[in-house]
């Protein structure tokens, strides 16, 4: 029997690898991050997920970048089972990254 974190990881990988055509962006993977600036005793979760992509072209206009972030976020939000699994696993935020310098919050 598969554990819940493994199942949502596989679901996330499959879902994210289908967001963009390969000529536009490539799904790299995800990383779980625990925020150290929030005390462990706080009522809010400390974990968040970074979903990582690499763009085929480094010269993306701001509007194109915003559209790409929106596309990833809407793909995530439409998968209610995945969102429920992430929430049950303690994630309260998902961010999208297209390079190593910046990330954009989805939810």
UniProtKB/TrEMBL annotation:
This is DUF3168 domain-containing protein. It comes from Marinobacter adhaerens (strain DSM 23420 / HP15). It comes from the Bacteria.
């Amino acid at each position: 029997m598969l554990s819940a974190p493994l199942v949502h990881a596989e679901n996330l990988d499959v879902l994210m690898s289908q967001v963009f055509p390969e000529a536009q962006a490539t799904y790299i993977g995800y990383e779980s991050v625990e925020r150290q600036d929030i005390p462990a005793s706080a009522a809010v979760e400390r974990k968040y997920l970074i979903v990582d992509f690499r763009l085929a072209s480094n010269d993306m206009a701001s509007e194109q970048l915003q559209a790409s972030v929106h596309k990833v976020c809407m793909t995530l939000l439409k998968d209610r089972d995945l969102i429920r699994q992430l929430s049950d696993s303690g994630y309260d935020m998902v961010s999208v990254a297209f390079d190593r310098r910046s990330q954009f919050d989805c939810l």
